[in-house]
């Protein structure tokens, strides 16, 4: 049954591929995706994304450190903008790496290669969050927070203690959820799945002729696609058959959205698109490859939007119950996702679902005055509706 | 059953439609007169620009000789002026990494390694002046010669000195510094005369005659050189690296002419002029517009692309013009203006590297592509 569905899908893809004008002309090869994300050349795996796995691991240590008031600003800066050999992390392998998180924040080819001014503003936002956490929140770690004063608040019923800034935001949540957009989503959607990267220089010719990179088993194009894959599945124990929730970034929230029955199947859709697109590269069928890229762009964008609206609505409900610590926690997660919407990608276009200025306006709206201490249910609903309206889901569907 | 037949029919139809398409890119050339283009580039731009540089390099040598014969502030200032004039003339030839220029230096950077690798490594100059042991032909000294080395020697202050001229007067290694400066100048003289002699004697005809459409043909090479110079020599080195676009933090000390300081904008605008004029096929003496990339695009009915490129060059120039004369200062006071200039320059890279090269059916030279190492 599954096989038939798949082959029908391929025929459909071939049809659309030829109806659009393509320069090569020759009828394109059929593509059949393997059951798992396994690809080999001469018996060697051609799949590699160690740089992505490394950055996810750096991200985990970094966002955990933001919740520990023993860290200094320069230590946190070091984790965010690691340089080869510096002892920034507990994990020695990470210290020995030449990768850094900061260099890949707002760094996609499509959005930022000719917009470094905006990219710098986004990187600076993260620097500012780190600095505010250390200078405003850490010194007030054991004080009780109130409107206009940073400190801690405990959730009702002896729940978790939340550490918030003077406006009620958990800065570590803004950073963690902001990275899901600015690092993972931006790199996947607007960099590695972009024809500007996949087809750069001689990539197509080399892929057509199975010319592999020096000393590697993969072609450059195969590798670029895998690097996109790695930002979602790079922390999986067995990435050939991902089980999700393997990190606290995109993997976790793909899983959460998929477990809402209104969105069940989204995780399989994305994984299947990664698999078929990769198989299409092996088969040299770039039309099917690009169609899969569009599917991934649409659905990963949707994960950020659904999860953002979900947290905003949760925050709104809890706010009404008067549990400020819990409400601020939800809202901080939610606005981290809202911030990340500027890195999404409307399929078939060169633009995000929400521009930087639109996202900045949302953030400014909720940061006015005493921030979350002042925010109203009307404001939360208006932002939630604005987001859902631009996607194909309703606010109600996100609430479960 | 009917459904199945329909699908089969569709596949057959699609296959037929697809197989009837035309040939892929890169196999054919249009009928544009590339000989006329190469002739204009060689005779009206490249060789005159090289001859202009030869004059300025020779003036620099004279100013250096005068300074060494009579070491005083006034002669040092005259030497600085001559250095700047030669440096400006250099901006018009750095892109011509072809022929003898390309084979010099033993790397893809070609002759640039003897003229303009910056930032300069001052310790190598100081050690060289102290010991007398250095080899300007060795790759170790690529970053200790050419205009950046002269920049330090003329405008920089050596360790233990308080002003630039002391290198040549009271410094314990004064003789060593004088020799170092002489050796840098001799290196530039000899490397450059080999290049211009080659153009004047044999290479001009070879260049014009090589109409191969492959990557070894003159047209493909000069297009690659032009785009690479724009992307790397101008966009990356002069603006992007100091602005921090290739690092975690801005690196203002990596500006061109760091020791003179107030000429970064002059040099960048000179480079911008060189790029625009070359694109337009404008003669070096500024008298005529001849065959160039611009009217080649017109011929290919891509005038909209030509206009887009020219507009973007103009935007980039405007963004450079609002910068401080001293880019080191600009990065430290308001780096946003610097990144805005970079962004405007980058917008044209896409037009040149993807659209224009595609229209010309020229592919990137092997080794051009830069990898960010993921």
Uncertain segments of chain A of ≥5 residues (pLDDT<50)?
Answer: 1-25
Give the strand tally of chain A: 4
Task: Quickly give the structural class of chain A.
Answer: mainly alpha
Going by helix content, strand content and strand pairing, the class of chain B is: mainly alpha
One letter per element, helices H and strands E, the order of chain B comes to HHHHHHHHHHHHH
Portion of residues in beta strands of chain A equals: under 5%
Shape of chain B: globular
What is the share of helical residues of chain B? 55-70%
Quick check: average pLDDT of chain A?
93
Give the termini separation of chain B.
51 Å
Q: What integer is the average pLDDT of chain B?
A: 90
| Strand ordering within the main sheet of chain A | 1-2
Q: What percent of residues of chain B are in strands?
A: under 5%
Indicate the multimeric state.
Answer: heterodimer
Binned, the helix content of chain A reads: 55-70%
User: What global shape of chain A is seen?
Assistant: globular
> Helix segment count of chain B?
13
Which value, in Å, is the CA radius of gyration of chain A? Answer: 22 Å
Largest interface (CB within 8 Å) is between: A-B, 32 and 37 residues
How many helices of chain A does DSSP assign? 17
């Amino acid at each position: 049954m599954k096989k038939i569905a798949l082959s029908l899908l391929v025929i459909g893809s071939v049809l659309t591929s030829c109806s659009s004008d393509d320069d090569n002309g020759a009828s394109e090869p059929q593509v059949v995706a393997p059951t798992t994300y396994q690809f080999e050349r001469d018996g060697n795996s051609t799949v590699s994304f160690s740089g992505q796995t490394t950055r996810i691991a750096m991200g985990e240590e970094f966002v955990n450190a933001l919740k520990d008031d023993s860290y200094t600003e320069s230590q946190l800066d070091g984790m965010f903008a690691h340089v080869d050999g510096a002892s920034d992390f507990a994990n020695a392998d990470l210290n020995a790496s030449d990768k850094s998180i900061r260099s890949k924040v707002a760094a996609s080819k499509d959005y930022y290669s000719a917009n470094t001014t905006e990219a710098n503003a986004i990187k600076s936002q993260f620097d500012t969050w780190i600095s505010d956490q250390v200078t405003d929140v850490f010194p007030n770690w054991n004080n009780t927070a109130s409107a206009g004063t940073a400190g801690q608040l405990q959730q009702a019923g002896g729940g978790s203690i939340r550490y918030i800034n003077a406006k009620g935001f958990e800065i570590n949540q803004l950073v963690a959820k902001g990275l899901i957009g600015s690092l993972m989503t931006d790199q996947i959607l607007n960099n590695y799945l972009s024809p500007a990267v996949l087809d750069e220089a001689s990539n197509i010719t080399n892929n057509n002729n199975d010319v592999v990179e020096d000393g590697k088993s993969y072609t450059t194009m195969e590798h670029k696609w895998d690097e996109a894959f790695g930002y979602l599945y790079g922390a999986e124990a067995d990435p050939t058959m991902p089980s999700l929730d393997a990190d606290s970034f995109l993997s976790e929230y793909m899983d959460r959205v998929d477990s809402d029955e209104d969105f069940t199947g989204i995780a399989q859709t994305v994984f299947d698109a990664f698999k078929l697109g990769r198989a299409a590269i092996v088969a040299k069928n770039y039309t099917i490859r690009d169609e899969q890229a569009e599917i991934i762009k649409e659905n990963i964008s949707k994960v950020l939007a659904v999860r953002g609206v979900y947290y905003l609505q949760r925050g709104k409900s809890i706010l009404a119950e008067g549990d400020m610590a819990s409400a601020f926690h939800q809202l901080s997660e939610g606005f981290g996702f809202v911030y990340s919407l500027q890195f999404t990608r409307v399929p078939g276009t060169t633009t995000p679902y929400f521009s930087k200025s639109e996202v900045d306006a949302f953030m400014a709206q909720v940061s006015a005055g005493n921030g979350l201490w002042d925010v109203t249910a009307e404001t939360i609903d208006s932002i939630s509706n604005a987001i859902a309206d631009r996607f194909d889901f309703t606010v109600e569907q996100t609430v479960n | 059953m009917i459904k199945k037949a329909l699908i089969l029919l569709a596949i057959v139809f699609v296959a037929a439609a697809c197989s009837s398409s035309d040939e892929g890119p890169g196999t054919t050339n249009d009928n544009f007169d590339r000989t006329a283009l190469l002739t204009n580039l060689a005779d009206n731009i490249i060789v005159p620009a090289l001859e202009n540089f030869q004059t300025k390099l020779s003036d620099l040598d004279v100013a250096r000789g005068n300074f060494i014969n009579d070491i005083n502030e006034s002669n040092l200032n005259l030497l600085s002026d001559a250095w700047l004039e030669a440096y400006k003339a250099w901006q018009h030839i750095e892109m011509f990494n072809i022929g003898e220029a390309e084979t010099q230096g033993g790397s893809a950077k070609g002759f640039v390694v003897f003229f303009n690798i910056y930032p300069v490594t001052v310790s190598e100059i100081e050690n060289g002046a102290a010991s007398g042991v250095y080899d300007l032909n060795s790759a170790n000294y690529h970053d200790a010669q050419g205009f950046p080395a002269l920049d330090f020697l003329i405008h920089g202050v050596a360790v233990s000195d308080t002003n630039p001229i002391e290198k040549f007067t009271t410094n314990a290694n004064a003789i060593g510094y004088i020799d170092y400066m002489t050796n840098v100048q001799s290196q530039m003289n000899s490397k450059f005369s080999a290049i211009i002699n080659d153009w004047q004697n044999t290479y001009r005809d070879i260049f014009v005659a090589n109409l191969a459409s492959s990557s070894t043909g003159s047209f493909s090479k000069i297009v690659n050189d032009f785009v690479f110079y724009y992307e790397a020599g101008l966009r990356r080195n002069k603006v992007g690296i100091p602005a921090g676009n290739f690092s975690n933090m801005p690196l203002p000390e990596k500006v061109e002419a760091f020791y003179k300081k107030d000429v970064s904008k002059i040099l960048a605008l000179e480079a911008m002029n060189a790029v625009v004029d070359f694109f337009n096929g404008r003669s070096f003496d500024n008298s005529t517009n001849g065959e160039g990339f611009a009217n080649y695009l017109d011929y290919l009915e891509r005038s909209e692309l030509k206009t887009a490129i020219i507009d973007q060059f103009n935007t980039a120039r405007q963004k450079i013009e609002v910068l401080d004369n001293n880019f080191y200062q600009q990065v430290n006071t308001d780096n946003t203006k610097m990144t805005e200039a970079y962004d405007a320059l980058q917008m044209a890279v896409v037009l040149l590297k993807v659209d224009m090269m595609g229209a010309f059916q020229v592919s990137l030279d092997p080794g051009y592509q830069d990898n960010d190492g993921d």
